[in-house]
Each structure stands twice: as C-alpha cells, then as structure tokens.
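Open question from group meeting: does this chain pack into something compact, or does most of it stay loose? Before anyone orders reagents, we agreed to write out a predicted structure and look at it together. Recording both the input and the output here so the notebook holds the full record.
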Amino acid sequence: MDAHGIDALRRRMLQLGAAAPLAAFAGIGPAAAAPADSDARDGRHDFDFYFGRWKVENRRLAKRLAGSDEWIEFDATDECSPILGGLGSVDRYRTQWNGGIEGFALRLYRPQTKQWHVYWASDRDGALEPPLIGGFRDGVGVFEGTEAHEGRMLPSRAIWSDIRADSVRWEQALSPDGGRSWETNWVMRMTRLA
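Structure tokens returned:
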C-alpha cells in the first residue's frame, strides 16, 4: 500500500473512532500490530539511547493551527531513566521558560503488541494525557494518538529521528482535518550532557 493509501486508511480509522493507535493495522506504519511470528523484533530497548541527561533546544509554534509562522525558542533539560527492568522509562523535563515548567514523560513497552505507550504530564494541571502509541522502524520512532486542542480531541503525532549517541531530534504535530494534513508545532533538538 502506498503513502496515499495509508493516509486514506488512517482517515477512515479516525472517522470510525480508532484514533489510538492510528497505525495499528497489520503491517502498515510503525505502530502496526505485532506479527504472528514469534521471532518478531522485541523493541523493549528502543529508548535505551535516551537514558541520561540532555540539553534541549526547543522551537515551539506561538499559536497552533492558526496559520502562525512565529516560533518561540527556549532551552530546557531532560533526564531519562529506565524502569521496570527495561519495559519502560521516565523523563523529568525542566525549563525556566514561561514562568518555569516541569514535565514528566512515562513510556511503557507492551511485549504482547510490541508497541510503546508514551504518556505526558506537567505541573500545569497534573493530568496524565492520553498516550501516543507506536514504535521504531528503520531508526525512526513514530507515535500517534489524540491531543486536546481548544476543546476538541485532534490526531497527534510525535516523531523521534536523527538518533545519534550524543543527539536526537523530536517533533510534534497536530492534524485539524482527521489526518489529511499535519502542522508541526514543536521541535526539540537534544544534545547529551551526561
């Protein structure tokens, strides 16, 4: 199936309420259901590259889904540690930007489905957001779900790419139209501190 067909199938799944995971259909996308074959790759160590302490250079769109091209830039730190014997990891994200923000990421790997569930919470409201679900393929991690935006739950996607020993790129996007188009609203470039 080509990219156009995959996007059409994702849109249809959204219409049917199958937003998370958007790509959980056999053999398509990084969040595809686990193959029946018992030798399928075990991804429980996919986030091991991120263990440690990182300097984070943030570029965040000033206003999302409003046609804005104004970006806000600020620095942060992020510290990642393994949990549950390798089936998960936790991050502590901190920045002085906008009065100071502390965030918490929780990643849990499910061996049965071979998918990661990535959760986020911050000191702004203390709520654990719905997970983005997915995994890695060919060195790129794609995670999809939904996110609240102005009273609506919209398709959301996060991508991990350019993964090296001392740097990595992360970006977040929202879709206002059920997955037909995406607006990247946050980009982070992480550089290892320790």
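Observations to bring back to the group:
DSSP finds one helix and ten strands in the chain.
The longest helix spans residues 3-15.
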